[in-house]
Amino acid sequence: MPGWDSDHKRNSPPIKMAAGLHRLVLLGLLLHAFSAIAHRLDEFLQTTFIAVGTNQIALSLSLTPGVDVAPQIVSLIDGNRDGSLSRQEIANYAEHVRTNLTLVVDSKKLPLVLTSSKFPDVTEMNAGVGVISLQLTAVTTHFSAGTHRLRFANEHQTNSSVYLANALVPESKSIQIGRQVRDFRQTTLAFEFTFDPGTTTAGLPANSPPIGSASPKPKLKSAGPPSTVPPSP
Known about the structure:
This protein is an alpha+beta fold. It is built from four helices and ten strands. The protein has helices at 2-41, 70-77, 87-99, 122-126, and strands at residues 44-52, 56-65, 101-105, 108-109, 113-118, 132-139, 146-154, 161-167, 175-182, 188-195.
């Protein structure tokens, strides 16, 4: 078919360019996917969301061990090495994580209380798909009007972990979150928040249950970009 052949030859340069571009895009996607998989294989991903309320501060942690580090994490939880996690072993590990967390507001260290936990089975963790979920709260008196400063630190398994930390958009309209400052690894997160008691609140009344209780959980809406910024001098 001479006509098709001539058209094909005439159009071959752009077709080749398009094909080459497609291959480059595909290669980039594959490299990105491979990077993400490699990232998850040999690292312990720890994600923390912080919700500031009028009478409490709630922390939501998700801990995901990659395949290569899962045996190390499982051994920390499974004390008797029987391949299953008892309630006591789960409680012991959750308490261990809690003691590795620090929450300071206006230079005062606040005690954190574990309100709920959810653990996958050992098989899921060893496969790199098991996520440990912990909910903690720090009960506070009502904040005074004005600006307050919060600092959170996570020192759990720092030798094999990567971290993400972010504040959520407050459920109460009386609270506004300022710029979030993280260290390079995001093991620490600091930010200022302002409290205006004259503003009508949209949530977290004085008798509201903590996050992780039987009440519906708030939507996880970030109060700022997840990018890391250097800490303030």
